[in-house]
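yo

u said u wanted the structure for the complex thing, so here. seqs first:
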Amino acid sequence: RKEVEQDPGPFNVPEGATVAFNCTYSNSASQSFFWYRQDCRKEPKLLMSVYSSGNEDGRFTAQLNRASQYISLLIRDSKLSDSATYLCAGDTGRRALTFGSGTRLQVQP
Amino acid sequence: SAVISQKPSRDICQRGTSLTIQCQVDSQVTMMFWYRQQPGQSLTLIATANQGSEATYESGFVIDKFPISRPNLTFSTLTVSNMSPEDSSIYLCSVFIQGLREKLFFGSGTQLSVL
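structre next:
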């Protein structure tokens, strides 16, 4: 079983839609979680950290559910520019991160 | 955050040759890592680059194939040795920034194609 698992998608949504991604993790000792955004042929860029209390940044909301060992990312009012691959990641205990395989989002006009 | 410069940005290499990738950070960082991202896959940690000592490799990666140097707190190199087409991948250096909210940032990556 992979340490971090995501639905690869693609998620095809119209502009303005709300879309949610989930990511499950197997290492219950992981303390820190993150969502990264990766555009085609680019490096991953940190989108947001994920806290148990929830974290909101504009149209983006991230949640952590430790009991069920999953993290989520909610994108409201989707824009064309949100089209990308979204990677969830959890710490390994050594400051490095373990990444999921990514969920591809395509926002359509 | 940190500015992470990685070069080359891409290269096409012949089987059996070696390529050294450089990673320069604009500030001193304690933790530096090398990742690989194969086509259509997620990121896989190759090793942790330790300043002044041998790198710590993940399962499936060995020093003979991926020698790493870390002479100081701002610079590291990764060499892909005796390349084969299976080594075609994006190689990314990353640094861990400590602070109120600890975060991992990436260089722009090196896209390697082996013929």
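The interface with chain B takes residues 32, 34, 41-46, 49, 87, 89, 92, 94-102 of chain A (CB under 8 Å). The mean pLDDT of chain A is 91.
cya
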